Amino acid sequence: MKFIIIGLGHFGSALAEKLTNIGHQVVAVDSNMRLVELIKDRVTHAICLNCKDTLAIKNLPLENADVAIVCIGSSEGDNLMTTALLKKMNVKRIISRSVSPLQENILEAMGINEIIRPEIETAERWALKLSATAYVDLFEVTKDFNIVEMHVPKRLIGKSLKEIEFNKKYNVIVLTKLKQINVINKLGVPTTILKTGDIITAESILNHDDVIVVYGHRKDIQRLIESNDN
Asked: Taking the model in full, what pTM does it have?
């Protein structure tokens, strides 16, 4: 896919690099030449441009872009102005960053349905992750539904998926299971990483060192943990 990332602060530059590493084409844009120079060798193209300028923004390959993402976080006004110009130019898909409830309301009033809230989303993710020691990692699909990497609850160790009946008893779906592998990192320090295991089936047995990836309502996932972790 072809992305245009506007705003190369910590979040925008990190997103641009990640998308490039995955294999997408990324045009990274900022009005600060120093930030453009820092990222130019790590993305497809890097451009120094004032995106609040109507004539300047027309020089971007907007017609060929699948997604334009406004990552400006230092100035709500610059963010809104840039987003409004992209909207006026009928860009296929616009995603914009919000740093305050008021900005989010304005973006929604402009018809922007995809809004990134990095600080809030990260805080919520960590709050949920830290509130349950069973969680290894967590991703919010929606406000109520999560994909969770979690340690196998004690009472379920040694049982098969067929025996446990996750869907029937707990209303959750087990997507796969991962193995915890001990490795030595680049600094020579022992650490643990997760590695994909075998394809999971109804006959798969859950072991004490497995990490299962579960999808479901957050309350159902919590119920699964609380009822089996004693």
From this structure: 0.66
Q: How many CB atoms lie within 10 A of CB 4?
A: 27
Which of 74, 92, 116 is a domain's end point? 116
Nearest partner of 26 among 55, 54, 47, judged by Cα: 47
Contact 150, 212 (CB under 8 A): yes
Residues 111 and 200 occupy one common structural domain: no
Tell whether 121 is covered by a domain: no
State the Cα–Cα distance between residues 99 and 179, nearest whole angstrom: 37
Which of 41, 58, 62 is CA-nearest to residue 49?
58
Q: What is the tens place of the pLDDT at every residue in 120-151?
A: 777 777 776 676 667 777 777 777 888 888 88
122 found inside a domain: no
Angle (CA) 165-171-173 rounded to 5° is 70
Whether residues 36 and 69 fall in one domain: yes
Domain that holds residue 105: 2-116
Cα separation of the two ends of the chain: 47
